[in-house]
From TrEMBL:
Belongs to the bacterial ribosomal protein bL35 family. Keywords: Ribonucleoprotein, Ribosomal protein. The keyword Translocase does not apply. GO terms for biological process: translation. The keyword Transmembrane does not apply. InterPro entries: Ribosomal_bL35, Ribosomal_bL35-like, Ribosomal_bL35_sf. GO terms for cellular component: large ribosomal subunit. This is Large ribosomal subunit protein bL35. GO terms for molecular function: structural constituent of ribosome. PANTHER family: 54S RIBOSOMAL PROTEIN BL35M (PTHR33343), LARGE RIBOSOMAL SUBUNIT PROTEIN BL35M (PTHR33343:SF1).
Length: 68
């Protein structure tokens, strides 16, 4: 009897990007919320992709079983 396939969590798949080397990239939060009060430097820094902390990668690997 074959095991069931695991489901990918679609919400997390849309929020993160997995590189070829296995790193998980994320965007910063609160980019569009109250944007006119933020400085241009803050907006530019939020626009970039950042690597996820190692403590969170185990949980993400469970949500995205076929991304690695």
């Amino acid at each position: 009897m074959a095991k069931q396939k695991l489901k990918t969590n679609k919400a997390m798949a849309k929020r993160v990007k997995v590189t070829a080397g296995g790193k998980i990239l994320r965007r910063k939060i609160a980019l569009n919320h109250l944007r006119r009060n933020k400085s241009p430097q803050a907006i530019r820094s939020m626009d970039k992709m950042f690597e996820l902390k190692p403590a969170d990668t185990r949980r993400i690997k469970r949500l995205l079983p076929y991304a690695f």
